[in-house]
Each structure stands twice: as C-alpha cells, then as structure tokens.
Write a structure and sequence with these properties.
The protein is of the alpha+beta class. It has two helices and three strands; from the N terminus they run E-H-E-E-H.
C-alpha cells in the first residue's frame, strides 16, 4: 500500500469560539479545526515536526527560523490499468515418435566417423617469367 503525504504549517494563533476562553484553548481549537478540515478530505494526521528554515535577514544576512509543520497522509488512489489480453505463446511442435529402425540408423550414423576429404594439391600454374 502506498501513501501520499501533505505537510501544512501548524497554526500560530488561536481561533476564537464560543466557550473557548484561554489562549491554550484557542490554540487547541485552531489545531483541531485544521485537522478536522483535512480529515474531511480523507487525510489522516500522522505527526507534527519542527523543522529549520533559512530566511533572509536584511540585505545580506540569513537567519534560521524553526517552523512547526503538521504531516498528514492518505492512501493513494490506485487507478485500474486497462485489462490486457494475455499473450498466448505458441506451443512448440510435438515431434512424431521415431520407430526403432529410425533410432538405430541415427545411432549408427553418429558412431561411424565421416572420412575427411583429401586436400587438393596446389596447382602448378605459376607463370614463368
């Protein structure tokens, strides 16, 4: 099973809501709202990570800022590949069984050495000068 992942920044401010009074409760409400919104689209909350991010500061300077990220995942939708027809392999031709006489003739032919052809003597057609 393979997954696809989505990483979003964690909320930095709380959300006001009826009955939510403290800053911690507002922040928790903002976090829950973000998680429920993504869960409605099929995303499963996996973890929160704090990661470094390099940012410009002034004209030439750089500074490292740490970002809080929420990681979500969901199962990748598998698209069905078009059905392929199976490739039919041709069966090798079946050899006709040989008779006893044919097998005997093959054994004899394999056992008797074939005579080598005599080498042809070089021709004496060299022209005299």
């Amino acid at each position: 099973m393979s997954y696809e992942y989505k990483v979003v920044p964690a909320p930095t401010r709380g959300l006001k809501a009826k009955g939510v009074k403290t800053a911690e409760d507002r922040f928790a409400h903002a976090l829950a709202t973000e998680m429920n919104t993504l869960a409605a689209d099929g995303w499963e909350y996996l973890r929160a990570d704090t990661l470094p991010s390099e940012q410009r500061e002034g004209l030439m300077g750089k500074t490292t800022v740490y970002q809080n990220m929420l990681v979500f995942r969901r199962v990748k939708e598998v698209t069905a590949a078009p059905a392929r027809k199976p490739i039919l392999k041709a069966e090798p031709p079946v050899a006709k069984p040989k008779s006893g006489e044919e097998r005997l003739a093959e054994k004899q032919a394999a056992a008797t050495p074939t005579p080598l052809k005599a080498a042809k003597p070089p021709s004496s057609d060299v022209a005299a000068e």
